[in-house]
Amino acid sequence: MADSTGSAGDRASGDDPDPDGTAPREPLLAPATKSSLLWGLVGGLAFLVLAQGYELLGNLGVGFGAKVAVALVVAVGAAVATHLTRGRLPTENESH
Fold it and tell me: What is the secondary structure of the chain as a DSSP string?
């Protein structure tokens, strides 16, 4: 008859019930927060692409630091706007 408590040889050392780390972990960020941050990143990078396009067509006369500063403002603005409007705008599945 087998011992239901298990012996020291049956388990890995330590109190961790899942020593392999295969159990699902709680995400670091909530999905809505992660999505908002990613949309902010997309907005900031889109601004930098636009600024680079203008730079290729002609001289903007704006330094690198100013472009990065504006891109950060755009990124933060896009992330905040995405987070605040989540749930207010219909998704593609909600056509009514």
Answer: ---TT--TTTS-SSS-S-TT--SPPPPSS-HHHHHHHHHHHHHHHHHHHHHHHHHHHS-----HHHHHHHHHHHHHHHHHHHHHHTTTS--TT---
Residue with tokens 């670091």: 28
Residues 69-96, mean pLDDT to the nearest whole number: 85
pLDDT in tens, 19-67: 666 778 888 888 888 999 999 999 999 999 999 998 889 887 888 899 9
Domain coordinates in residue numbering, the chain: 32-85
Sole residue written with tokens 């601004």: 47
* Tokens 């504006």 -> residue: 70
In this predicted structure, what is the pLDDT of residue 4?
Answer: 54
| Predicted model pTM | 0.64
